[in-house]
Amino acid sequence: TGMRVAVVGAGVSGLAATKCCLDEGLEPTCFEQSQDIGGLWRYTEHIEAGRPSIYPSLISNTSKEMSAFSDFPFPEHFPVFLPNALLLEYLRRYAERFGLRQRISFGVSDAALLRPAARPCWVPLVTLLPSPFQTTVVSIRKHPDFATTGQWHVVTEAGGKQTSDVFDAVMVCSGSFSEPSLPLECFPGIERFRGQYFHSRQYKHPDVFQGKRVLVVGMGNSGVDIAVEASRVAAKVTISTSRGSWLLSRVFEHGYPWDMVSITRLKNLIKTRLPRALSWWLINSKVNKRFNHTNYGLQPDNRYFLALLNDDLPSYILTGRITIKPGVKEFRDSSVLFHNCPEEEPVDIVVFCTGYNVSFPFLEESVVRMENKHASLYKYVFPTHLQKPTLAVLGLIKPFGPILPVVEMQARWVSRVFKGMGANVSPPVPQNAGWTPFIPPAREIPELRILKTEWLVYLDTLASLIGAKPSVLGLLCTDPKLALTIFFGPCSPYQFRLGGPGCWQGARQAILTQWDRVIKPTRTRVPAGSSSSFPSLLLVGFLLLLAAVIFGF
Q1: pLDDT at residue 454 above 90?
Q2: Where is mean pLDDT largest: 173-177, 305-309, 328-332, 439-443?
Q3: Strand segments (E) across 287-436
Q4: Residue 226 domain boundaries
Q5: What would the 3-class secondary structure string for 202-241 be?
Q6: What are residue 284's phi and psi, to 5 degrees?
Q7: C-alpha angle with apex 225: 39 to 446, nearest 5 degrees?
Q8: Alpha-carbon distance 17 to 20, whole Å?
Q9: Is 117 contained in some domain?
C-alpha cells in the first residue's frame, strides 16, 4: 500500500512489528538507538542509557517451542530453555531470514564511557555517560491534519543533528525494562543506611557479594535469580517479600518443560470455566505437591495469582543458603528490621528488585494516558482516545506464558488494522462513538505497571480478529490427528499459522514434530533396549467432541 510505518525499537517486539508490516505490504522503518538488534536479550557488560540491562547468566523462563515466532521454529539442536546469547542468535537468524536488517536504522555509538559512582550509599556498579553519536527517537507528535490523515511527525537525533519525517502510522516497541523503579520513600531509614544499595538493573556478576550479608528486596524472577547467584559467594542472603509467590520449576511433570505441560487448550478451557476461588484452590493444591510453600515462607496471599520460575530456590532454602523474610519495616545504620520480626538483621548490601516504570519520553502524555498506574489501551495495544487508530503500543503486557508469540500476534493484528483489511478487524474509534476501552480491574493486578492477562485467551482474541484462530472442530473432521494434538497438546504458536492471513505451509509439520525438537538436545544418550518412541498426547476423538458439546468450544 506504500503506507509508511515508524517502528520504535528493534527488540523482540520491533522485529515482529517490522516483519508483520512487510507481510502486509507496508513500508516500515525501524529505529534502534543502539548498534544491534535484540533489545532485552542483547547482553552488554556496560549499562547503556535507555536500554534494558541483563546479567550474563540470564536464561529464558519459557521453552523454545512455546517462545518461537509462529512461522520460524528454533533450531532443533538449541537447548529447551535458552541462554540469552542463544536467544539473541535466534533473533539474528529471524532478522536475516526475513530481510529485516535493511529496514532498521541503527544508532552509531562510540565506546561507552564509564565512571565509578561517587555517592557512598547509592552504589551502581557502573555509571553510563550517554554517547553524543547515538540515534534516538526524540519526539512523536500528531501531524496538524491528524484528524483526517492519522499521520505522525517523527523526530530523530544523531550526532547532535535532528531529522524530521512524516509517517502514516507508528508502532511503539521500546519495551518496559529500561527505567528502574526505586521507591526509596517506601523504605524508612534508608537515608541513614551506611551499606551499599542498588537496583537489580545494575547487577552483572556475583563477585560484588563476596563475603557480604546480602538483602534482596522483592521476589520477582530477577530477584530470585540474583539471590541464588549471590548465595554461592555471600556470607548470608535474605529475600524480603510482602506477598510471597508460588514457585515453579522449568522442569515439570515427567521432566518436560513447564509451559508445554501447563498451557494447553484443554486445561485453559477447564480453568476459564471454573469460579475464581475454585481455580485458586486447584492451583494452590497443584503447586504445593512439589513442596509446601508455607513451610518455606513462600505461600502467597490468596488474593493474588503470583508465580515465578526458579529451579534452585527450594534446595537453597532447605540448605540454609537463603532465608525468606517479610517486608522491610525499617533500615538502621547497618541492619534492617522486618515486619512482625523483633530482631534486627545485619546487612552489608541491599539489592532492590522493585521493578520498572513504564514511560514513553518521546510521546506527549496525552497520547498514552495512564490510569491507576495502567495505560489506557484497547486490547492492551491502541490508545483509547485517538481519532485515528494509527499508533499502537506493543509488549506492554505481562501474560503468564511466553511473551514473544503475544507481541507477534499484536503486530499481526496492528499491521492489519493499519492496512484496513478484513471484516473481522475492528479498529478502535473514539469513546464518544460508543467504544469502551478494556482496562483490567485493579483488584486483579494490584500495583503492577504492566498489564496482565490470560495468555491463551488473549492470543485467541487477537487471532479471531484477523481470522487466524485455529478451528479444532473443523480440523477434527479433516485432520483428526492435528486436531487432537492442538487440543490436548501444548498450545504452541504454530497453531496460529494454520489458516488466515500469513498462513504458513510448515505449520502442521511444526506442530506434529514439536516434541521431537524438545527431546533432540536432551536425549544425547540412549541406553540399550530403551524405547525411542515419544509419549503420545493423542486421546480418543470422541472426548474432544464431548468437550466441545459440553463447553461450547
Answers
A1: no
A2: 328-332
A3: 307-309, 322-325, 328-331, 335-338, 345-346, 349-352, 356-357, 370-371, 374-375, 377-378, 382-383, 391-393, 397-399
A4: 182-249+290-354
A5: HCCCHHHHCCCEEEEECCCHHHHHHHHHHHCCCCEEEEEC
A6: -60, -45
A7: 80
A8: 5
A9: no
Confidence band of 200 (pLDDT split at 50, 70, 90):
very high
* Total domains present in the chain: 3
Name the grid cell of 110: 562510540
pTM of the model: 0.87
What's the Cα-to-Cα distance from 431 to each of 17, 187, 435, rounded to whole Å? Answer: 26, 40, 5
**Do 200 and 304 have their domain in common?**
yes
Which cell numbers hold the place of 175? 519495551
**Three-state DSSP state, 185:** helix
Q: Which three cell numbers stand for residue 76?
A: 532443533
Question: 302: exposed, middle or buried (C-beta count within 10 Å: 0-12, 13-18, 19+)?
Answer: exposed
> What's the CATH code of the domain at 244?
3.50.50.60
Domain annotation covers residue 464 = no
Last residue of a domain, one of 419, 434, 452: 419
> Same structural domain for residues 295 and 186?
yes
CA-closest candidate to residue 357, choices 176, 122, 173, 217: 176
264 located within any domain = no
Average of pLDDT values for 98-106?
93
* Residues 88, 92, 97: CA angle, nearest 5 degrees: 145
Q: Give me the mean pLDDT over the 83-88 stretch.
A: 97
- Sole residue written with cell 502510522: 169
Residue 446 domain flag:
no
For 546-550, which contacts have Cβ atoms below 8 Å and span 24 or more sequence positions?
547/266, 547/269, 547/487, 548/472, 548/473
